[in-house]
């Protein structure tokens, strides 16, 4: 939500997509997510810029190996994956790796199929392999539905029209340094549906 408050054009584009696919006579449901590629791109881009944690859980190398860049890792070495830096690497994500650009996850057909240049293989906010978070699918669906309903039903703005401070605080999960405070108003198109709830 913080990223959308600082990128109102993306919020409007997502709201227009929701209106076109779901309409205003009912609330967005999980089954609608497949038809909302831009909303899914927003979630992917948010997880790219702000992964759940900056590093994955430490692992121990089970055998001697060589990793990217030709670095030798001895058996028994503790290995940390710096997801935050990897998902902002300009060599992978292009000239604007720190900017919020949901379109980077759109494929040629306007769907969400990963990036054409292979950058999506460097996306791992939930980990990868057999130790990947088992809740990834549920988390993506729940975030998609929650964000989609918030955009479908309300107009959002930062409290007092202030700039949103996107700086990161300290901690294992990279909280915002300044807590987000936003104000919402029901969208005129959704008022009758919201009153009926």
Automatic annotation (TrEMBL):
<keyword id="KW-0560">Oxidoreductase</keyword>
<keyword id="KW-0349">Heme</keyword>
<dbReference type="InterPro" id="IPR050651">
    <property type="entry name" value="Plant_Cytochrome_P450_Monoox"/>
</dbReference>
<dbReference type="InterPro" id="IPR017972">
    <property type="entry name" value="Cyt_P450_CS"/>
</dbReference>
<dbReference type="GO" id="GO:0016705">
    <property type="term" value="F:oxidoreductase activity, acting on paired donors, with incorporation or reduction of molecular oxygen"/>
</dbReference>
<keyword id="KW-0408">Iron</keyword>
<dbReference type="Pfam" id="PF00067">
    <property type="entry name" value="p450"/>
</dbReference>
<dbReference type="InterPro" id="IPR001128">
    <property type="entry name" value="Cyt_P450"/>
</dbReference>
<dbReference type="GO" id="GO:0004497">
    <property type="term" value="F:monooxygenase activity"/>
</dbReference>
<feature type="binding site" description="axial binding residue">
    <location>
        <position position="133"/>
    </location>
    <ligand>
        <name>heme</name>
    </ligand>
</feature>
<protein>
    <recommendedName>
        <fullName>Cytochrome P450</fullName>
    </recommendedName>
</protein>
<dbReference type="GO" id="GO:0020037">
    <property type="term" value="F:heme binding"/>
</dbReference>
<keyword id="KW-0503">Monooxygenase</keyword>
<dbReference type="InterPro" id="IPR036396">
    <property type="entry name" value="Cyt_P450_sf"/>
</dbReference>
<keyword id="KW-0479">Metal-binding</keyword>
<comment type="similarity">
    <text>Belongs to the cytochrome P450 family.</text>
</comment>
<dbReference type="InterPro" id="IPR002401">
    <property type="entry name" value="Cyt_P450_E_grp-I"/>
</dbReference>
<dbReference type="GO" id="GO:0005506">
    <property type="term" value="F:iron ion binding"/>
</dbReference>
């Amino acid at each position: 939500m913080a990223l959308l408050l600082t990128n109102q054009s993306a919020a409007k584009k997502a709201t227009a997509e929701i209106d076109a696919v779901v309409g205003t006579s009912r609330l967005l449901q999980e089954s609608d997510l497949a038809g909302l590629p831009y909303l899914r791109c927003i979630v992917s881009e948010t997880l790219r810029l702000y992964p759940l944690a900056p590093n994955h859980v430490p692992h121990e190398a089970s055998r001697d190996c060589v990793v990217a860049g030709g670095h030798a890792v001895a058996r028994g070495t503790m290995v940390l994956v710096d997801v935050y830096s990897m998902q902002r690497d300009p060599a992978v994500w292009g000239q604007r790796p720190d900017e919020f650009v949901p379109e980077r996850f759109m494929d040629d057909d306007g769907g969400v199929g990963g990036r054409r240049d292979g950058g999506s293989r460097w996306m791992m906010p939930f980990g990868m392999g057999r130790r990947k978070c088992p809740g990834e699918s549920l988390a993506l669906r729940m975030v998609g539905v929650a964000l989609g309903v918030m955009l479908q039903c309300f107009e959002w703005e930062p409290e007092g029209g202030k700039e949103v401070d996107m700086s990161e605080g300290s901690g294992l999960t990279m909280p915002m340094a300044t807590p987000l405070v936003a104000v919402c108003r029901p969208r005129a198109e959704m008022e009758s549906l919201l009153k009926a709830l």
